[in-house]
Amino acid sequence: PSELLKFIAGQKMSALAITDHGNMSGAIEFYSACYDAGIKPIIGAELYITNGSRFVQPGQPPQSQKNFHITLLAKDKTGYENLMRLSSIAYTEGFYRKPRIDRESLKQFSEGLICLSGCLHGEIPEALRSGNDELAMKLASEYRDIFGKDEDDRSNFYIELMDNGMPEQKELLPKLLELAKKTGLPVVATNDCHYLRQEDASSHEIIMCIGTGKKLADPDRLKFATDQFYYKTANEMIKLFSGIPGATENTLRIAERCNLEMQFNQILLPHYTVPEGETPDGYLRKLCGEGLKKKYPEITPPIKQRLEYELGIINKMGFAPYFLIVWDFVEYAKRNNIPVGPGRGSGAGSIVAYSLGITNICPLKYGLLFERFLNPDRKTMPDFDIDFADYGRDAIIEYVLKKYGEKNVAQIITFGTMQSKLAIKDVARVMGFSVADGDRITKMIRQGEPIYQAVNTVKELKDLYRTDENIKKLIDNARQIEGLKRHQGVHAAGLVIAKDDITKYTPLAKSVRKLAGEQSIITTQYNDDALIKLGLLKIDFLGLKTLTILEEAQKLINARNPGIGFDIVNIPLDDKNTYKLLQKGKTAGVFQLESDGMKDLLRKLRPTVFEDIVALISLYRPGPMGAGMLDEFVSRKHQRTGIKYDHPLLEPILKETYGVILYQEQVMQIAQKLAGFSAGQADVLRSAMGKKVPEEIEKQQDIF
User: Which class is domain 2-193+231-257?
Assistant: First the structure.
């Protein structure tokens, strides 16, 4: 939204509203961007409303049932929560081709909302266009009664006026003004915006073709009647509605009445019931103490000190319930013989998690940092990624649903974006290129590489762009839509748990998960980034086939060798025969080591210690490989290249990776050793580097 906000700021407009069709998915990103730019954000939605019951599907009695558009804006927190409830009801109760509300739900959740009568497809405009003035009067009266007035006698229902250059709008305008005069309702001019600039209309047509599976050459494709659905300047809007008193002035009055203040980075943990007489902090400490005795034959001072340090931070930040919630469902899995992974991601850096059995990796042994998981200088929700055997994942989710209440738990929506290759492919089809021609262009672009970069660096593509006008149009059109959201789906693992009805925090949607067939699933409308920003508890429940395979392998070993009591957890990490197999690339079926590229790398590196395997998995990624780190690491491992340290203090940090800065933990340790950063400050630096935010990196450089 940065270009849009620059335009709004340049126009000296004080507020901006979002009213997406049928959903609120962009609300959090929109609110944050507006707030940061000093522009008042107004959260709204253009919902679909049926003139019958939301529970009756069109085509069923009554035959007259039809869907219309209605514009709703949240004035305050109550209005925002009601808007989320209405949007959720539209999906969970009224979905039939479109998410729909009805008059009953609107009456129930109208408080705190301002309602506009809608576009040409609004209920009142359609009544007027069909010549049914009596129905239009009746509807206007109903909507006025539903939304009522403020304490200062200002109506919460407005007659909406639009002019996007369509003859139908111009014909409707005097009828709307006459209705407003008869009913005493205020009017407001709005701008039905679908793209930023007038010249973006062609890109919008391409997006519509992508969404409907059509080509630009199709005569029956869905398209807008004019190229006037862009963000008009203040002067353009004033000129369009100059003869109508109050039409543009009321946009400011509505903006003044909309004062939603959203709270971000809160901690909205669900309630965890501890045994009678216990507190969450005390119960967590008790469980950790019991767990440590099982994990360590002797609890040495460093172990005790690390536990006390972590518990101090966890308790101070109020996260004891979080650890108890995760411990509880992990324990459920273990009680029901569902294999649990040893630990994925930054959560493996916590000795509290290790003592609770959430992870099975000693962070002290491997030099893992707690602050990488939970930064004491930045209050953000910790995030465990928990692996379960794939066959047991659904049972664990069912347990969580029952424990915390189905109304308080939801799966998470995801959005696929039009990355460079997909944008080229989609636009090529829409423009009528053959599949072969589209594929020819996409093959010239590396995965994840922006289109502009490929055009500047790939000679063949650069030549085509300069000499072939059709290819130039294709690439230019693809660049216009690159990065936009294309489709929605269901997060492969994410679940969000609220402390009460989840629709108080996020609207719900109906998304499709493609398994053996298409399966509709109720999800949040907000993606995981938005949910985390709100402070909701999001946990990834990963179903991993590898854990199922390992469990079966362990059973087979014990069945064929009775009495040995083989346990995969206790296998030695220095077994020479295992390293011989790894050095030969014999890793079929081995998690993360079975691809052809990884087998080739294993043969080059010839790992001799466990840390080599860890390094290998970290190096086998586009960034390190593109930077030549992989070859450098192999060369240093086999002493073909000398190992140098830019400072003596770096040697103990980088020794096990042959002087190569490979892990984020090493970045944090270097910042602490060389620049005196606290662990929390070092994590901020790590985060800035990981997200590649230039402004933050520059700021951190000055501090360093």
Answer: alpha beta
